[in-house]
Amino acid sequence: MNVLIACHAGSGIGLGHLVRSLVVARNLHEAFNAEIAFFIQGPCINFQELKTYPHQFIDFSNDFFEIIKNNLARKEYQLIILDLFYDYIPENIDLILRELKQFDVKIIGIDSLKASKAVDLVFFPSFYIDEPIQKKCTAPLLFGWDCFLLNVKKSPEDWEPGKNILALTGGSDTTSLGQTLPKRLDELLPTESVLHWVSGPFSKPPCFSEICSISIQHHRRLQGLDDLMVKMNYAITVYGVSFFELLYYGIPTVVFSPYGEKDANELSAIFREEVAMVAKNSDDAVLKLKELMANDVLAKQLSQRSKLKLSVLGGKKFVQAVSDLLYEPRA
Q1: d(Cα 250, Cα 308) in Å, to the nearest integer?
Q2: Residue 275 lies in domain
């Protein structure tokens, strides 16, 4: 099986689309011995796992889909997987996808393309999707707690209280939390706390106090977060893929969205599931983190619930979906 995976990455986008695509590639290769090629629209990224596959970085000034179409004309593929950033999806996407399907390929959209009439399947790596969006989706739609495409490589352990706190603001920190949040954490957390601040590859340098009350360790250019996450006792994070990785590892977490009402429905659902503490904003998140660190009973409950929810990962479900799409006999 030949598979072409196309995704976006870069400043303002982050690495989430690329990381999810690598999880898909790993699972497809293991299940089908698939030959996989990557087309990535964005700047060159030194990502170790990406070196396993043939890949090409495409500048945003170039026509991404024209390059994909030209590649289909040169090589036979059975499947195209698209994990695209919403702002870079052209208005005539269905026309473009129908042109690609002339090469006798199936097309799966990850996350995006829910309104497309030209995809064969939409795989939504989340536990929640708004009902109006579900109704708009004409292609088969898969979502749920067993659909997360998490790039996790270790096993969860039993939670223990401690002093290590992980702070994540996304690959780009588009709302510049790094300029204010470290100081706020330094002001309010217990003095024995050890804050592990992770700067994403497209983030500006954070602003730490000249004299800190707590210990701060600054982590940069990380290829993955697994080794760090499993050592943490608590976390504070923006809503995104890494939040669900924290849930998988059972790290008691405070989550918030710095993007206005964009994630309001999802965070309301997270609150109802009782797998994390949900904050209104970054200031509220610091207060809730302080509260969480003082409540071992609550922290342990969050850890146990979150691990249970993500006991089955989405790679297996994606493999089954591909098998059904390509190999099941048609009625």
Answers
A1: 9
A2: 164-309
